[in-house]
Design goal:
binds D-Mannitol-1-phosphate, alpha/beta, binds nicotinamide-adenine-dinucleotide, N-(1-d-carboxylethyl)-l-norvaline Dehydrogenase, domain 2, about 375 residues, Rossmann fold, about 50% helix, globular, three-stranded mixed sheet
Length: about 375
């Protein structure tokens, strides 16, 4: 069984690569990072270390790499042989990945073996976005051997520097939930959970783990912290995090069938993950892509707008919007773009145009500070 995985970064090597390897796949990583691809081709393997006391280490073997900048032609053979294609590149990169896959797809689909294509990104229904980008190029795909399941991936993998460049340290917890209805073929992966309806799982994850992370990053930075672990030692951050997650809990339990008790249990587990002393996760990583995170369907604005419309408390999420607009990671191109939009249009104009907030909610958000 062969896999092509786009994005040989932290989640690609540390999570998706490990699951595929455990399922017996030979993995070809495709990436634009020459150093990583050269190392994959030289080493043919790497080690995943679990970040806990006496944590285990797992050797991932049978891997290789394609540098999609220097050798895009190598992708053809890899796609033709693939049983699964996955991505972990960042949701905004998916249209570029679509352009890499599309030229080889028709030929691959003449082969009756099932092919599943799955985007493993932090966004609601990211595979649908990849599928749309692919079908914009190919037209409607009528082959019955292709599946585009959406998925939710959860495992904290910080940016890190290790002695061996490919090795990667990951938290012990992981969860990969896949949309069963869209899966092509009968051979499923061991490890992921398959569900009929993914929306409850992806939104619960995004609006708890990722909204929580955003709260720690954007508020923690105003208090001068650099990492999640450091910020979580401050009771002010803990209190704010609890307030934010109480609001997203109201959204999750109103929209889906999770009970308050189930959600409280889920939150407790996540807060323990945020205080893992064996991980050092930079607030700049957790807060990266600030414009994406302030998008209408993302982790802050979607629950905020819902709670506002329902007349429910949304004060902490409103403050979170304001902390996000004040983030200061100027190495992030999205931060630079946001800063320039805010200086041109003001915060009010930015939130109305970019986040799609109605003017009464925009004013309310601004007045929380
Ligand atoms: N790190 C985490 O804790 C975590 C957890 C769950 C989900 N995610 C999601 O996984 C995705 C990847 O995150 P990450 O932390 O692994 O980031 P990362 O920066 O470590 O890895 C992304 C990789 O994609 C590569 N890339 C960029 N453009 C590319 C292109 N055009 N073609 C091929 N490769 C390209 C980069 O070179 C990099 O190696 C994001 O959507 C993120 O939200 C991350
Ligand atoms: O990757 P982002 O930028 O969408 O979000 C940053 C973090 O919240 C995220 O990467 C988490 O670590 C991850 O989603 C945990 O599963």
């Amino acid at each position: 069984m062969k896999a092509v995985h786009f994005g040989a970064g932290n989640i690609g090597r540390g999570f998706i690569g490990k699951v595929l390897h455990d399922n017996g796949f030979e993995i070809t990583f495709a990436d634009v990072n020459k150093e990583i691809i050269d190392a994959l081709n030289a080493e043919k393997g790497y080690t995943v270390h679990i970040a806990e006391e006496n944590g285990a280490s797992y050797d991932i073997t049978g891997v290789s790499g394609i540098n999609t900048v220097d050798n895009p032609g190598q992708l053809e053979q890899a796609v033709l042989e693939a049983d699964i294609i996955t991505t972990a590149v960042g949701v905004n990169i998916l249209p570029i990945i679509a352009k890499s896959i599309t030229p080889h797809l028709a030929k691959r689909l003449e082969d009756p073996r099932p092919l599943n294509i799955i985007a493993c990104e932090n966004a609601v229904m990211a595979t649908d976005a990849l599928k749309e980008a692919i079908t914009n190029e190919t037209g409607k795909l009528t082959a019955s051997n292709i599946g585009f399941p959406n998925s939710a991936v959860d495992r904290i993998v910080p940016i890190q520097k290790n002695e061996r460049i490919l090795d990667v340290k990951v938290e012990p917890f992981y969860e990969w939930v896949i949309e069963e209805t869209e899966w092509a073929g009968t051979d499923k992966l061991e490890g992921p959970n398959y569900v009929q309806d993914l929306m409850p799982y992806i939104e619960r994850k995004l609006f708890t783990v990722n909204t929580g992370h955003a709260a720690i990053a954007y508020y923690g930075r105003t208090l001068g912290y650099d990492t999640v672990y450091e910020a979580m030692t401050d009771s002010k951050v803990q209190i704010f995090l609890n307030e934010v997650l109480a609001e997203t809990q109201d959204y999750i339990t109103a929209v889906y069938d999770f009970t308050a008790e189930e959600q409280e249990h889920y939150i407790d587990k996540i807060i323990k993950r945020f205080t893992n002393p064996h991980l050092s996760d930079d607030l700049n990583r957790v807060g990266r892509g600030v414009m994406r995170k302030l998008g209408p369907n993302d982790r802050i604005i979607k629950p905020l707008v819902y709670l506002h419309n329902e007349g429910e408390n949304h004060e902490a999420l409103s403050k979170l919007v304001m902390y996000a607009t004040k983030f200061d990671n100027t190495e992030d191109p999205e931060q630079v773009e946001m800063n320039s939009l805010i200086s041109e249009k003001g915060i009010e104009g930015f939130l109305t145009e970019h986040s799609g907030l109605e003017s009464d909610l925009t004013k309310e958000v601004i007045n929380t500070m």
